Amino acid sequence: MTDRVVPEGRRQRRRPTKQGAVLSERLIVETALNLIAWHGAEALSVRRLGAALGADPSALYRYFRNTDALLLAVADELIGRAQQGWTPTGYWRADLRTIGLRIHASYCSNPQAALLAAHRTTGRPHEIRAVETVLGVLREAGFPDGLAVRIYHAFVDQALAFAAQDAAALALPPAARATDAEVWQEVYGRLTPDTHPHIAAAFPLLAADMRSSGYPFALELMLDAVAALKPAADAG
Amino acid sequence: MTDRVVPEGRRQRRRPTKQGAVLSERLIVETALNLIAWHGAEALSVRRLGAALGADPSALYRYFRNTDALLLAVADELIGRAQQGWTPTGYWRADLRTIGLRIHASYCSNPQAALLAAHRTTGRPHEIRAVETVLGVLREAGFPDGLAVRIYHAFVDQALAFAAQDAAALALPPAARATDAEVWQEVYGRLTPDTHPHIAAAFPLLAADMRSSGYPFALELMLDAVAALKPAADAG
DNA sequence: ATCCGCACGTCAATGGTGTTGACGTAAGGT
DNA sequence: ACCTTACGTCAACACCATTGACGTGCGGAT
């Protein structure tokens, strides 16, 4: 149970692996992201990552204490990517929409890591920056502090909750994902009007709508409600 | 790969296990919920569940095709508990609020299981009943089908997503939960106005608000927006 | 220029996981 | 009372994360 991890700063004596690769924390995180992108979330195992790196699987434990630490490092990379190259425009509604959709998209692009990250308060720089940005958008739009805080809370939690929800669906093993999709056709499609009148009546629309995420519409509803709460003046 | 599962209805020839237990789908689901509540989500493995039941692990495959099917059954049980002893009142807004809060409460009351279940479509009886109920509330309130479907989707996903989010927080080991709570005081409380003006200004309100779930307010915002979309007549 | 300590890549083993084919017992229908 | 077969059990397979032991060869020190 001795800790075989050496902090990235103090690292020395790098030695190529049998297959010639030179390992580093950065290379491992990027290889993990590529592995997931290319072979799907379920392909990320220590053994496969080792193989992809051209190293013995156990070499990873020189860089990360366990797979959890590795996934957190991957997740941290994701949070950064969500905010990369964007600044507020000054239009609160457009800004909130963009932030919400960016968080959602970034998490969905790497579901496995997102699942670990979405439920935690990290207190790390990227998270702090996001909090400051959202609060700033609301306060500068003229919402009084008490209201801004409640809206902030609802908005951020909703973005993270939906991101986790949709990421979880993407992270399922392919078999389970296929099952969930088929359930709508096979089970809900067969219900008859006399026992389930509403489902039967709405089924075609329902089956179509459930194929995509409910977040964009839920976000728009929230923005509608927030606009209605905005204190007079420039209803902007 | 032959299917060893016999549908619950046609089941016969029940035989006690070596240790005297008489298995049933219902007993297995309840044992699984107890196992999770008592030993945590990571304790749910086929082997341990078999042991808890006093049966050979492989006996489970006579009742569920695989662990995924078992999880779906557990999820459906939670949905069922959320609806127990409730029927719509005819006031769409009050009904939607009650359903949302009930789902949220049911999942939070069993956080470990909720985490495994909240992301799945079960296609099982309790879920079907919930879908029919929510759709019925919307359609009978006068929402046209297309709109009712989109609102249904946003509403249900929001409830499940927040339920999972808040269940995840409750499911953390006590030490980690305390740490996450302290982050707000320790990290966000120390930010200065010159680098983070908005967080600094709103901090007391923020720290207080973040202690409880953002769901009730988010739900109210969604209901506000839905009310505004309601086609004329009796504004709900 | 040489030496030496130890960092780090490798190997092998441990104990976990889900899942399945084969088997025999005993329960139900006849 | 028989016969069929449901279903509980056993054993095995292939995978997983993790860790103790080991020795190679790099880097710093001399």
TrEMBL record, chains A, B:
Residues 45-64 bind DNA. Residues 22-82 form the HTH tetR-type domain. InterPro entries: Homeodomain-like_sf (IPR009057), HTH-type_TetR-like_transc_reg (IPR050109), HTH_TetR (IPR001647), Repressor_TetR_C (IPR004111), Tet_transcr_reg_TetR-rel_C_sf (IPR036271). It comes from the Bacteria. Keywords: DNA-binding, Transcription, Transcription regulation. It holds the Pfam family TetR_N. PANTHER family: HTH-TYPE TRANSCRIPTIONAL REGULATOR RUTR, TRANSCRIPTIONAL REGULATORY PROTEIN. This is TetR/AcrR family transcriptional regulator. It comes from Streptomyces ramulosus.
